[in-house]
Description:
The structure is a single chain. The protein is mainly alpha-helical. The protein is built from five helices and four strands. It has helices at about 30-50, 55-75, 85-100, 115-140, 145-170; strands at about 15, 25, 110, 175. It has a two-stranded antiparallel ribbon with strand order 1-2.
Amino acid sequence: MRLTKIYTRNGDDGNTRLANGDEVAKDSLRVSAYGDIDELNSAIGVVLTQNTGPEVTESLSNIQHTLFDAGGELASAGMINDLIIPKHITQLEKRIDTLNQNLPPLEEFILPGGTAAASSLHLARTVCRRAERSVITLSRSEPVAPVIIQYLNRLSDLLFVMARYENHSHGNHEILWKNPRK
Length: 182
């Protein structure tokens, strides 16, 4: 499909069409879920404008394509399936293990911060968690492939590890949470 006209005026009444042709409210659970994934993709795009190492940049570029597929699958309302498959989760897990192997062990919760890229990765992680919650909420009332929820869950873990990796690579110490009970 080629978009030659950006505005259609079809959404001026607060409704939009899904990929399968169904008309739904723009604030429906489905539109909110794929909208949160779109926001996550944009947050990752912001990370990619910063000085990230090649280990992070290459992974994030691939993840953006997968997120677009996840949003497309949600927007299709069952018309498109199996764009996100268990292999995608395995890829995330391998990347987590690779990046995490040279990081110091976590002894306390850390606060978001450090380099601009690490801070942006933490922000992307929180957007990812919100997208995950939106998809879970949608799944309670409409069919959603469980692998999409699993993917978002694992992706938020990867974004956390990437933030730690970026800080560690640039010699930044993580900001540890000050536990008031210690």
